[in-house]
Amino acid sequence: MFLQLNQKAYLGPIGDDLPSLIPLMFALVIFFSSFYMTVNTYNDKTVDFENDISVVQISASLRGTGFVSSLDEFNKSCNALNVRQPYFSAGLVGLETEVNVFDLDSVYLFEEQELFKCSNADSALTEEKTLSLNSKVVSRVYPVVMQNKDSVVVPVKLVVVAWRE
Amino acid sequence: MERINQPFKKRLVKTRDKSLKQKGQAAVTDALFFLIIVMALVSFLFFFSSQYGRTVGEYSDSKYASDYASSALKTVLYSSFARDNVSVEDSDEVDFLIAAIKEDYADDTSIEYFKNDLTDSVKNVMQPVRNSFDYLLFIRISDGSTFTFPYFFVSRKEFVSEKEGTFVSDVTSQEKNYYCAVTKQLDVDNFIVFIGARGQAVSSITFPLIDGESHNGVAQLVLWYPKNFSEEEAVFQKLNCELIPEISEN
Predict the structure, then answer these.
(1) Could you please report the per-residue DSSP string of A24-62?
(2) Which has the closest alpha carbon to A162: A66, A71, A72, A90?
(3) What is the DSSP letter of A128?
(4) Tens digit of pLDDT at every position of chain B (250 positions)
(5) B-contacting residues of A 33-92, CB under 8 Å?
(6) Which residues of B touch A67 (CB under 8 A)?
(7) A124: distance to nearest CA of chain B, Å?
(8) What is this model's ipTM?
């Protein structure tokens, strides 16, 4: 009887700790949401770096000495590439041509109807391999010289576009 | 309970009441300490996510600038050039631009006749990155301990605003091109440090002279992120640059 009289605001073993649960829950929510954000940022940046490194490797291989003497030589450099991921499309484009990454085939230079193009996304083209607005895209441009059929050496640009879904 | 005397009963109730209050306070304090620790962890996570990959990103950008500079220099030097002032495709006299430059240098050790053709070629090759980088290209001849610069071209952007103050929103960039009459290598080095070069490429060139001798030279291309400075800047003034109005209008 006397215990009840002297236990004002006593809500029981859990009820008594109720105010401490508010900062506890707040801390847990803040921690897990920031942890989730950090993991996402880490994954995004890692993917970006992998794309960057791949683009550097692809462009270095296709540029060679910076002198493309023929389509055969370009194709030889292309075949030497063994990149499975990310998907990429690279090719030679006129120096003053505006490049739209979603329509690269229309701007690639060609010789006897064969494009100066190198890509790992052509065979068995699936939705996943197609560059879309949701893709993570990295694109780089490098100037190179290309010898045409008249033995004239013209400056062109090598465009390399790599993407992941 | 009936046997417990009255003063003892009072003391017992007081003690019980006090211990109940203390228990509640301890739980809240523990929770607040936990919150402080979590906040420290969260700060670390935010710091980590903002800093992660920053160095790699900077290195990647710098590598791209260097790769672009070396590719651009090769492209400028190896490109074909029409000697009869028509397009390369229609010309009957096609030669390498560097051959024409060497020919120009051979008679009077200066590059004047094909200077604008070289400038056009450089601007053409740098066109894809002209919004990202300012650049300079020079040819330097070393004659023992002295250097001469028969060709020195600078292209940079100047940022202008009609309003004044710290926060202005109407900033526009204006491309400015210069030929410079540099006399000292030190002035070039100081300028490169001042602008903070992001990518550089150097290529050796031998310039034969008509008397059978030859001069050793280098062509150097330097890229940097656009940096706003006025023409009165001391390091820039030492380069003795002259604005090329007709080219900047292109």
Answers:
(1) HHHHHHHHHHHHHHHHHHHHHHHHHHHHHHHHHHHHHHH
(2) A90
(3) T
(4) 455 566 666 665 555 555 555 555 677 888 888 899 999 999 999 999 999 988 888 888 888 999 999 999 999 988 888 887 777 777 788 888 899 899 999 988 889 888 888 999 999 899 888 888 999 999 999 877 788 999 999 999 888 777 777 677 777 888 889 999 998 889 999 999 999 989 999 999 999 988 888 888 999 999 999 988 888 889 999 999 999 876 444 4
(5) 34-35, 37-38, 41-42, 45-46, 48-49, 52, 56, 59-60, 63, 65-67
(6) 74, 78
(7) 32
(8) 0.79
Return the residue matching tokens 């006749």: B113
Task: Please judge whether A31 and B38 are an interchain contact, meaning their C-beta atoms are less than 8 angstroms apart.
Answer: yes
In Å, how far is B24's CA from the nearest CA of chain A?
6
Q: In this structure, is residue A93 part of a structural domain?
A: yes
A28 within domain boundaries:
no
Yes or no, beta carbons of A52 and B75 under 8 Å apart: no
CB A109 within 8 A of CB A116: yes
Which amino acid appears at position B92 of this protein? D
Domain spans, chain B: 8-41, 63-247
Asked whether residue A19 is assigned to any structural domain, the reply reads no
